[in-house]
Amino acid sequence: MASPGSGFWSFRSEDGSGDPENSGTARAWCQVAQKFTGGIGNKLCALLYGEAEKPEESGGSQPPRATSRKAACACNQKPCSCPKADVNYAFLHATDLLPACDGERPTLAFLQDVMDILLQYVVKSFDRSTKVIDFHYPNELLQEYNWELADQPQNLEEILMHCQTTLKYAIKTGHPRYFNQLSTGLDMVGLAADWLTSTANTNMFTYEIAPVFVLLEYVTLKKMREIIGWPGGSGDGIFSPGGAISNMYAMLIARFKMFPEVKEKGMAAVPRLIAFTSEHSHFSLKKGAAALGIGTDSVILIKCDERGKMIPSDLERRILEVKQKGFVPFLVSATAGTTVYGAFDPLLAVADICKKYKIWMHVDAAWGGGLLMSRKHKWKLSGVERANSVTWNPHKMMGVPLQCSALLVREEGLMQSCNQMHASYLFQQDKHYDLSYDTGDKALQCGRHVDVFKLWLMWRAKGTTGFEAHIDKCLELAEYLYNIIKNREGYEMVFDGKPQHTNVCFWYVPPSLRVLDDNEERMSRLSKVAPVIKARMMEYGTTMVSYQPLGDKVNFFRMVISNPAATHQDIDFLIEEIERLGQDL
Amino acid sequence: MASPGSGFWSFRSEDGSGDPENSGTARAWCQVAQKFTGGIGNKLCALLYGEAEKPEESGGSQPPRATSRKAACACNQKPCSCPKADVNYAFLHATDLLPACDGERPTLAFLQDVMDILLQYVVKSFDRSTKVIDFHYPNELLQEYNWELADQPQNLEEILMHCQTTLKYAIKTGHPRYFNQLSTGLDMVGLAADWLTSTANTNMFTYEIAPVFVLLEYVTLKKMREIIGWPGGSGDGIFSPGGAISNMYAMLIARFKMFPEVKEKGMAAVPRLIAFTSEHSHFSLKKGAAALGIGTDSVILIKCDERGKMIPSDLERRILEVKQKGFVPFLVSATAGTTVYGAFDPLLAVADICKKYKIWMHVDAAWGGGLLMSRKHKWKLSGVERANSVTWNPHKMMGVPLQCSALLVREEGLMQSCNQMHASYLFQQDKHYDLSYDTGDKALQCGRHVDVFKLWLMWRAKGTTGFEAHIDKCLELAEYLYNIIKNREGYEMVFDGKPQHTNVCFWYVPPSLRVLDDNEERMSRLSKVAPVIKARMMEYGTTMVSYQPLGDKVNFFRMVISNPAATHQDIDFLIEEIERLGQDL
């Protein structure tokens, strides 16, 4: 292995005299840096002057650092007391960073430089004069750079360059004109919280190794259940790696509730189980059914009205049909905010049917759950309080960084019974604290990433009212877009009426198609419009919005607004851009 | 909502004159800061002096920033050109940060202050004079602070305090004396990479929104397959949220390979399937079987020798037994590095049996996979190249921040066929780039966190040889511990012989027990020793190591070493600490 050895630091005092104490400028820098940032200034100054770090508890200066314990590292090299170091990363490697002896200084400099790269990216992300994406085709990107992994280490200069290169080609998902997914935006407090989560680098399975995070998960899930409307916020829940897994958990728990023997005996021991969800629901319901050994054929897709809402009478009809065949309906998954139309299934009517036939009612509110934070819009989820389980992804409408998805369950203890395996190496029963905080056995995962802190810290920073303001604004922007295009030449709405969520679905019809009759040829040509405009958007890098076909409707744009940076002007820009890029088609 | 309004910035020049241009000290700070860190110095200085940021591509000074596009925000307030700002966070809220108008300055200051908190934590994490944990019982922590979520926002001063409080009670998982889990340590390059991942805030499902990360996943998985020994690194794979999910994926794919109709028809359409794994294997195999509708009764636990290795003859016997009953063996999951003993199942013998009976061979190398990076130790996984699938968690032995778990599959295309649902809103078939890079449909997850970048960047920084050096060192430390305690008074080894992995399993026998006969009473008293010592370790906060019972063996310590910060002195310390805390028991 390459070992840079000594001499890779270049130290000199500002006046060239080599005497740090005489360097007025360096002293001045420390004073200013301390005032300005408080932290790194202090830390670096202490290092530069060879002073020990002051412990938090004590106000005294230069406390003794040496204790009766063994020193931090065995070597005798002390940080030199020169005032300033020019770090030459070309001579530094990962092995020079902490926990290396004398690794503090290069580590702080390196991490600070990484942070500078990130801060520049953050600022650029919000700058409308930058591109949303600097698009390259996969083969171009593969050829342009050497991404391969090798035996030998690279130096830290190269590592910093990789960070810059990676961000150069990244999608700026916080950019005010990025509308491509349900998760958009970059929240500054959420970002800070995610950095902290990475730094804490722990696992959610036990209180033992994640005490604060486990408590915050407890507090946050309870609050979410209160908002759903379960009495006193009672019930259960967990943060899982995404809405698809949350939905699969709901299916798993619903099955276990009805047939607990399935855990040991498998599906062979139970009758044929049938799940119901709307034809506009998310594909994860079918994925879950395939994985759980239920099979996709046992997921019945209920018809929707023209706005994409499940038709309750069709649900009841299909339940009766299935029962007549001797199969067992075990789950209805209603959707609150469908992926494409943003439709809200009629939860009250679905709840009545589920009650009547004693079927587990799940609400997939991955996308629509955020509206529960808004006094103006939460009526769209009326009936969610009657659900047995709810998927709610704060990483979508609430703008929490990826990933943050919660499954909430009304009955307490069911998740634990369903999934627990009592691993004695993790969940020792003779621990010295309250074991109910060891939540790991509720999940299929063993190790579980800390996803809660981002949401908790954002909630503290914004308050419920802050989320409400964000959501109301996004809904208002969607209505603004709808009002502009509903009667505008060259636009056709995919469904009539004001959007219930921020999804606005429309075709842009280029001038050449406007004269055509509504026939197959026009449909065929129209289906090619959105993909071409989208490809051009990406090549210009000006904006990004999604498109897809759905049922008998050919490719249309699905505009969604969850980005807190978006303004009316950005909506105007989007329309102009679609027309600029599509008028010749 | 509270709105701080204007006037929350307090600007003054260093000499009190109010004239920034005359402030020599501030100028000096900028000069020094630029030299020292390169980045934030430049950025803040540019802001403070009202200069536009210099674009990366251009070397010219003060390029025109205004373009024909719309300006970044509609308001006309310009950053003031004062030299230095004392930020009073008590008057600032999340709404003052980007994307707010004029949000750049408070955002940079806020994120920098968060970073300072994190850097202090990083430095402390490696300092042996700090506690590994400042332990409090759950009810204490809940009472000591108000963690509740409220309607109204908190100011940024409070948010920064929450960050400090959260870290105050966090476990320092990077601390040189933290040995509690298989995942320990805090790698500086990995941490930097995770910060970048958070900042990029995107999703792995399509190339469209994660171009670089998708390519890096491709490159990295291929490299891992090469190391496993599959010709040319061919095959398939994915990063999943933890080893338990990776193991479940293996089970899912193995079942699909044998009975593809299970996807549509469910378990009702197939015969009873049986999986085999050792009695020392990870509990996730049973969790997976329960979830997939196979049932835990259909997971047969094969006997292990006294070192914790699966006994091949028992495997073959149980396979024959099952076949005789008319059931279908579909999966053998061998373990390379068991959780407690660190045992490696005899993969070559298992491979022969799997071949003979045409059973999918999975290797759960979540913990042991790292040894493949070491020329000295990889022989312990001989035969892994014959597996059909391998779980390998770089977040364990290789020290990548949590989470980073890979499932590698020898047959290409199987994951896609098994899990795909062709969601047309994500995986549009008329996109303008090579769709093979849209990997999202291989997974059960829809949104998928970017877990690869940490590993890729660490690999570039360390090289394969760097991982090898780390792994060899950890194994050497484990041997050092073993050699010290194997003949030391007061210690009994749980199994004989040199550990194959870094797991060293032992009882500490306090003096009062050493005189007792080896009977039930002694066992009963011995079983209480490790929990008490562990509780005391946590209360003193000096070190952390795990314990558990296993089979007929009462609570014993399981020491594992994956922490790059650990040294021989830390091993010595651990022994002294166990004796100090346990001698009175």
Automatic annotation (TrEMBL), chains A, B:
Start and end residues of each stretch annotated as Disordered: 1-24
Keyword line: Cell membrane, Cell projection, Cytoplasm, Cytoplasmic vesicle, Decarboxylase, Golgi apparatus, Lipoprotein, Lyase, Membrane, Neurotransmitter biosynthesis, Palmitate, Phosphoprotein, Pyridoxal phosphate, Synapse
EC number: 4.1.1.15
Superkingdom of source: Eukaryota
InterPro entries named among the record's database cross-references: PyrdxlP-dep_de-COase (IPR002129), PyrdxlP-dep_Trfase (IPR015424), PyrdxlP-dep_Trfase_major (IPR015421), Pyridoxal-P_BS (IPR021115)
Keyword Acetylation: no
GO molecular function, one term: pyridoxal phosphate binding
Residues bearing the modification N6-(pyridoxal phosphate)lysine: 396
Membrane-protein topology: Peripheral membrane protein; Lipid-anchor
SUPFAM superfamilies, sorted: PLP-dependent transferases
Top-level EC class as recorded in UniProt: lyase
Compartments reported by the entry: Cytoplasm, Cytosol; Cytoplasmic vesicle; Golgi apparatus membrane; Presynaptic cell membrane
Cofactor(s) of this protein: pyridoxal 5'-phosphate
Quaternary structure and interacting proteins, as annotated: Homodimer.
The family this protein is said to belong to: Belongs to the group II decarboxylase family.
PANTHER family: GLUTAMATE DECARBOXYLASE 2, GLUTAMATE DECARBOXYLASE-RELATED
UniProt-recorded name of the protein: Glutamate decarboxylase 2
Gene designation: GAD2
